[in-house]
Automatic annotation (TrEMBL), chains A, B:
InterPro entries: Ferritin-like, Ferritin-like_SF, Ferritin_actino. Coiled coil: none annotated. Residues 6-185 form the Ferritin-like domain. This is Ferritin-like domain-containing protein.
């Protein structure tokens, strides 16, 4: 078991459900929105990769002696709502969602993983590696924008909406799952994260937390900007 | 390239599209019909395995110098129709479809693979191995029937409908793709299958073909009966 069981189980649980539901939503987008069989197969490949990730996380939860279904349950409503609010209306929106929406969610999980035990961190980072998904999506979106540059504004707006919804659901989750939230904003180093509650009672430095939150958002914004530039939705650095 | 390019390409094409579309339909069933997260994850696992199969077939088509999309295209309408006619209305129907429907389709592909080159045959048999899917589905269906034996008749009828639709689409495909049909019923041994058309002109033995068709149906019926018994939908042997 890790130093911070509740936070670790929450992190693995939310990420497991995120991967399982991403798998199912991407498969649905592939089935209903792909313009060609080749595109359908390519997005299906992204979906199938998400399932492989889910399996790694589920197996880790089982190995920790935790029922995966119970670990995922607290996050079902938030993640289902996020998907309901960001249902793509066409193929390009589906691609941008697969890249930008999944990307920003991944950044949150990666941030949380900075404060868990090394084994969990390694697993989370492995699961979040984006290389496979990136190449295909970036190529397709850039080609579409090159052909019709007027799509840029609309898709950039779509991306912004997904990020807004992600922040809103993230806020909701943080309120409901303090152990998970502590992984994101605690100033305590990894090994002490489990005791952060007690430190709080001892008068933890609230100003340091605010600085840390500021840094967190700076990192998230930077990563998001990098993805938007990769797709050609904002000017590159 | 194989001895029988057209038949082999058709076999790989129909099977590739069958796997891709099975992946997407199973994912949809998992998303919409699974009663628990654990069930959803389990059927998602069956779906993800289908995608892995699809990839093997697509890569083989590319390796043969064939565009996978072109190889799949002739079979899209038939397979989509089969799925439209056999859309499960509930979780148990989804499970029976995953086992019986996919099973009978697999038997056809396996029969066709008897008459292609050894490399293709090996790939097809590898793709069709059913072990993973079987265990989970059989267990769930048997448990449901033990709890409510009155479901047996209804599910047996559902299974029969799927087989009927499969035979109907198989018939349609055989008429449209003679190279594929020849793989199923030709009396010519594997290496000569490519020349079956010419043999036909030389007066091929129609009686021998009828015997062969009879044997084919006997094998298909036997395999189907075995699956129905495994699920508890007919008395076992």
């Amino acid at each position: 078991m890790s130093d911070s069981p509740a936070g670790v189980v929450d992190l693995l649980g939310v990420l497991a459900y995120a991967e399982l539901t991403a798998f199912l939503r991407l498969a649905d987008d592939a089935a209903t929105l792909a313009p060609t069989l080749t595109d359908r197969a390519a997005l299906s490949g992204v979906a199938a990769a998400e399932y492989a990730h889910f399996r790694l996380l589920r197996d880790r939860l089982s190995w920790l002696g935790v029922d995966p279904e119970q670990a995922m349950e607290p996050f079902v409503a938030s993640l289902d709502d996020w998907h309901a609010q960001t249902r793509p209306g066409n193929w390009l929106e589906a691609l941008v969602k697969a890249y930008v929406g999944t990307g920003i969610a991944g950044d949150f999980y990666r941030e949380a993983a900075r404060r868990v035990d090394p084994d969990t961190r390694k697993l989370v980072n492995e699961v979040l590696a984006e290389e496979v998904r990136s190449e295909f999506v970036v190529e397709r979106v850039r080609a579409a924008l090159a052909e019709n540059p007027r799509l840029t504004g609309k898709l950039a707006l779509w991306a912004r909406r997904m990020v807004g919804e992600a922040l809103s659901q993230g806020h909701r989750l943080a309120a409901a799952r303090p152990d998970l939230a502590l992984l994101l904003v605690s100033t305590a180093p990894a090994a002490d994260a489990a005791f952060a509650d007690e430190e709080d009672q001892d008068g933890r430095d609230a100003a340091a937390d605010l600085v840390e939150i500021g840094r967190l958002f700076a990192r998230l914004t930077e990563q998001h900007g990098r993805r938007m530039a990769a797709l050609g939705l904002v000017p590159g650095p």
